[in-house]
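Page 37, top half.
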Amino acid sequence: VSTQSTGILRLAKTRAISSSCIDPNIGLTPDQIEYREAALNFAKTELAPYMQEWDQTEEFPVETMKKSAELGFGGLFVSPEVGGLGLERLDGSVIFEALSQGCLTTAAFITIHNMVNKMIDTFGTDDQREKFCSDLCTMDKIASYCLTEPGSGSDAAALVTNAKKDGSKYIVNGSKAFISGAGSTDLMVVMTRTGGKGPKGVSALIIDTTTPGISYGQKEKKIGWNNQPTRVVNFDDVEVPCENLLGSEGQGFNLAMHGLNGGRINIASCSLGGAQQSVEDVLHYTQDRKAFNAPLNANQHVQFKLAEMATSLTSSRLLIRQAARALDTNEPNAVSLCAMCKLYATESLFKVIDDALQLHGGYGYLKSYPVNQFWRDARVNRILEGTSEVMHMLVARDLLKHL
């Protein structure tokens, strides 16, 4: 069976779980159900048939992402006045979950693009919003987010890429690491040091990737996320107009963290979509696969394992959606809930996918079965947008500050 046929067949079975305890539509409004159906249909026709091929050829599916923008997926949270849909975080979570059932990696990159677009819409000037957001919403231009550096990952406030003001421009020097889409995107929001040490010395700049002085390292070879390029980005006396400062000087770290709060919900939602599809696939596999003269799911151990997987899936979904609601309504505990949902969901859902692979037996280890790719693609979600260890710190900090 070809990888395209496999993708079509597995998502054709998706509606079989309707009304079951793992039905993603439970608790959604009619509008949200429509959003999910639109995203799932796109995942079925435009993502799933090509997911494995893109992984093997390491193709960055720019044209497919532009097709997703025709449905509004390039500016989910952006104001309608500049071309966005103006949706809430919960709506976006539902959409990213559904897209990830077709291709987790492509959906994850679309979340990053949306994070940048939302940052510009929220903190940018009217001129910046008009100049950048419309093209980002249509994905005629694609964006990267640049925070991590070779020497500063979790300790993001220790970044050293600097931007020195020189008249009407900033001169940027330094390097960023692990940048998704690097070398294939059109603009970047880059966190730079314009002041002293620590978070208050960080500012955000919108930088056109065609600006002289920008260069890239080799494309990284990764376990997963193979159909989006990851590279080091180097800045060598890159001149950036002062009008491209996002927010005010010294506000960059707060902007970066604001973007990551939503990003953590989005990435958790991608893990959720990958796990949802893996569970649906393994339900059918254990029904069809025979061992000892009976379907695999006649074995009580297998039944108990499926029940555990379903429970993890549903509890993760509840926590993700609670965090999304908290962020939508600016609840005081929103930051810790975003950290909590990212921690719990990415960890527990990776185990769900791992269990699905195990239940497939040797077939789960073959690249012709999608579960192995969901396993590889979901692993990094425990690292990016804040590692699980940092999420522990954020949750504990919230608990202790109330003593």
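Page 37, bottom half:
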Amino acid sequence: MHTSYAYKPHPALSEYSNCKRNFTQFCASQDAFLQIPQYEGIRSLWKGLPPTLLVAVPGTVIYYTSYDQLKVMLGFKENYTGKDNNKWAPLVAGSAARSMLVVHLGIV
């Protein structure tokens, strides 16, 4: 006997459609995004942004500065297609800059 699955909804869709509308448990990201502003206000969606930026921005600045400096030191020239251009420099510089950042800040 052949069973057709065409008429059955995807489990994720049926779970969301049967979702109980209470604030204690969310069924999906969309459900949380709609309910949090109702109960806590629209500003609550961004209340974790300042601490996140305090952690992320210094690491990003250190990484990109190190990457650019290492890339130039290894002989890579932007917009230059000559044979003396080190094509492996961006890969090596990116790996080294990320490794130095992880060792220095202790984050992954």
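Margin note: Helices lie at 11-17, 29-40, 49-73, 89-105.
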